UniProtKB/TrEMBL annotation:
UniProt key word Translocase: no
Cited NCBIfam families: PRK07400.1 (NF005639)
Protein name: 30S ribosomal protein S1
UniProt key word Ribosomal protein: yes
InterPro entries: NA-bd_OB-fold, Ribos_protein_bS1-like, Ribosomal_protein_S1-like, S1_domain
Record region (Disordered): 1-23
Similarity-based family: Belongs to the bacterial ribosomal protein bS1 family.
Pfam families for this protein: S1
Domain called S1 motif: residue spans: 79-148, 166-230, 244-312
C-alpha cells in the first residue's frame, strides 16, 4: 500500500508518544464530547419529530414504509392462544380486541366450559385474558374466539394429573340414567357406572349428593371420564383395616362363585372356596341374604378396590361352617389370632439368611 504525504504524516503522528499533559487534555476533551446536553428534546416534542420531507432521501416514502409494516401484521390462525381485551358484551356473545384489523367475536357457548346464562357472570368490559382462536377470518375479516376450549384443555391436563396421583376427589351428582350417575370434574362430564356406586340409596336419590370418587379411566381422545365411588370407599375403609382382622358383616348378595358381604359400607367377597374346608356345591346351602356373620380379612387390594374375606380360616374344625356356624363365630377372634401367628411365622421363615462379610 502506498501512503500519501498526508497519510504518512498522520501515521507518524499516531506512532509518536504523547506526554502525560497531552493525555490529560484528551481525556478532558472526551468527557466534554460525551456529556449530555442540558437541552434535550422530549419524545413528544414536536420539534424533535421527523417530517415527511426528512424522509425524502432514505430511498422510500412513508406510504411505502406503512405498506412494509403491514406485511408484519399478526398472522392469526386457528389453534393459536392470544391475549385479548373484552370491550363489549352482547346478547349472543362478546367482542374482543386482540390487535387484529377487526374486533374478534366470542359466542356465548364458547365463554366457559360450564353452562353460562349471562355473559356478565363470567366476563366484564376491560378484562384482559387468554383466548383460543377457533376459526379463520370470515368474509368480514372477523375471527371467532373461545375460552371454553382453553378451559377444556386445562381440565384434561388437571384430571390426568389427579389420576397419576391416584387422588380421591369429591363431586356432585347432577343426573342419573339406567347405566349409572353423572358428575362434573374440573368442568368435564364424568360417568360412574352402576356397578361402582356403593350406597344403599336408589340411584335417583343420589342427585345433589357429593360422592368421594377415584378415577377408573381418563381418555381425552375418546372423551371418556369414568369414575368409581366404590373404589374410593374401599380405599378409605382399607386405611382402617388389616389382613387377619375379624369384622362383622351382612350378606348383601349371593352368586354361584361366592357371597358379597357388607362390612361397614363397603363390599367384600367371600369366595366359595373360602367358606369352609369342606367342599360346597353352592353358597346358597350355607348362607342367606341379610345374614349377619363374622368374617376375616385375608387380602386388601387397594388398586383394584377389592377386599377378600374368609370364614374357612376361622373354623376350629374343618366343616364347622356347615355343621355349626355359631361355633365359628364364637371362636372367630381366637382363630384369627392363630392365623396372624401363622402368617408371622411364615414371614420369618421366608426372610433371607444374613450373610456375614467378616
Amino acid at each position: 500500500m502506498t501512503l500519501t504525504p498526508s497519510s504518512e504524516a498522520d501515521t507518524l503522528e499516531a506512532l509518536t508518544p504523547i506526554s502525560s499533559e497531552e493525555a490529560a487534555d484528551i481525556e478532558t476533551t472526551a468527557e466534554l464530547d460525551l456529556a449530555i446536553p442540558e437541552e434535550v428534546p422530549s419524545a413528544d416534542d414536536s420539534s424533535s419529530r421527523v417530517s415527511a420531507r426528512d424522509g425524502d432521501g432514505v430511498g422510500f416514502t412513508l406510504d411505502e414504509f406503512a405498506a412494509l409494516l403491514s406485511k408484519y401484521d399478526y398472522n392469526f390462525k386457528p389453534g393459536d392462544v392470544v391475549n385479548g381485551t373484552v370491550f363489549a358484551l352482547e346478547s349472543k356473545g362478546a367482542m374482543i380486541d386482540i390487535g387484529a384489523k377487526t374486533a374478534a367475536f366470542m359466542p356465548l357457548q364458547e365463554v366457559s366450559i360450564n353452562r353460562v346464562e349471562h355473559l356478565s357472570d363470567v366476563l366484564e368490559p376491560g378484562e384482559v385474558r387468554e383466548f383460543f382462536i377457533l376459526s379463520e377470518e370470515n368474509e368480514d375479516g372477523q375471527l371467532t374466539l373461545s375460552v371454553r376450549r382453553i378451559e377444556y384443555q386445562r381440565a384434561w391436563e388437571r384430571v390426568r394429573q389427579l389420576q397419576k396421583e391416584d387422588a380421591t376427589i369429591y363431586s356432585e351428582v347432577f343426573a342419573t340414567n339406567r347405566g349409572g350417575a353423572l358428575v362434573r370434574v374440573e368442568g368435564l362430564r364424568g360417568f360412574i357406572p352402576g356397578s361402582h356406586i356403593s350406597t344403599r340409596k336408589a340411584k335417583e336419590e343420589l342427585v345433589a349428593d357429593f360422592l368421594p370418587l377415584k378415577f377408573l379411566e381418563v381418555d381425552e381422545e375418546r372423551n371418556r371420564l369414568v369414575l368409581s365411588h366404590r373404589r374410593a370407599l374401599v380405599e378409605r375403609k382399607m386405611n382402617r383395616l388389616e389382613v387377619g382382622e375379624v369384622v362383622l358383616g351382612t350378606v348383601r348378595g349371593i352368586k354361584p362363585y361366592g357371597a358379597f358381604i357388607d362390612i361397614g359400607g363397603v363390599s367384600g367377597l367371600l369366595h366359595i372356596s373360602e367358606i369352609s374346608h369342606e367342599h360346597i356345591e353352592t353358597p346358597h346351602t350355607v348362607l342367606n341374604v341379610n345374614d349377619q356373620m363374622k368374617v376375616m380379612i385375608i387380602d386388601l387390594d387397594a388398586e383394584r378396590g377389592r377386599i377378600s374375606l374368609s370364614t374357612k380360616a376361622l373354623e376350629p374344625e374343618p366343616g364347622d361352617m356347615l355343621s355349626d356356624p355359631q361355633k365359628v363365630f364364637d371362636k372367630a377372634e381366637e382363630m384369627a389370632a392363630r392365623y396372624k401367628q401363622m402368617l408371622l411365622e411364615q414371614a420369618e421363615d421366608n426372610e433371607p439368611m444374613g450373610v456375614s462379610l467378616e
